[in-house]
Design goal:
alpha+beta; three-stranded antiparallel sheet
């Protein structure tokens, strides 16, 4: 019967027993040289020194507990909630819906703004395509059966509906 006996050793001659006697601090990475000579040698090699861990940590803004969580909605979006009826009246100024008409086969709304009155069609914008809407407001819905129209503005999330 043939028996094989063998000894295992690491390529550099260290055995497991010898490695157990090694001081763990000796196995730590050698510190990288810092200062002008290290930066000069990096620059001459065309390399840029990476920031330290502390520099990376300091570059992040404080206050975020979970860096992988969803990004908080901008403050402006939180403020763009549906305005109150009083706020709508204030935003529209002297504006009133007078009635609904069909002109040239298209549904329109007859309105008064300031001292002017006239018909407004869908997608017309006050101050751009009509003077009968307050500046920046756009007509997005005409609901004659319900007696209301829908208006919107760039800073509003949802249309505002106004009844006769």
């Amino acid at each position: 019967m043939l028996a094989l006996f063998g000894c295992s050793s690491a390529p550099n001659g260290d055995s497991a027993a010898n490695r157990a006697d090694v001081d763990p601090s000796a196995l730590q990475r050698r510190p990288q040289p810092e200062g002008p000579t290290a930066q000069a040698s990096l620059a001459s090699a065309g390399l840029t020194q990476a920031p330290t861990a502390q520099q990376v940590i300091e570059s992040f803004p404080e206050g975020r507990l979970d860096p992988f969580g969803p990004i908080p909605a901008p403050l402006a979006a939180a403020q763009a909630q549906a305005p109150t009826p009083a706020k709508i009246r204030e935003m529209l100024g002297n504006f009133a819906v007078l009635g609904f008409i069909k002109a040239s086969g298209q549904q329109a709304v007859f309105v008064q703004h300031e001292s002017r009155s006239g018909e407004v069609y869908l997608d017309q914008v006050g101050g751009q395509s009509t003077e009968f809407l307050p500046r920046g407001w756009r007509l997005v819905a005409i609901e004659a059966r319900k007696g209301r129209i829908g208006l919107t503005r760039a800073d509003l999330k949802d249309p505002v509906f106004i009844k006769i």
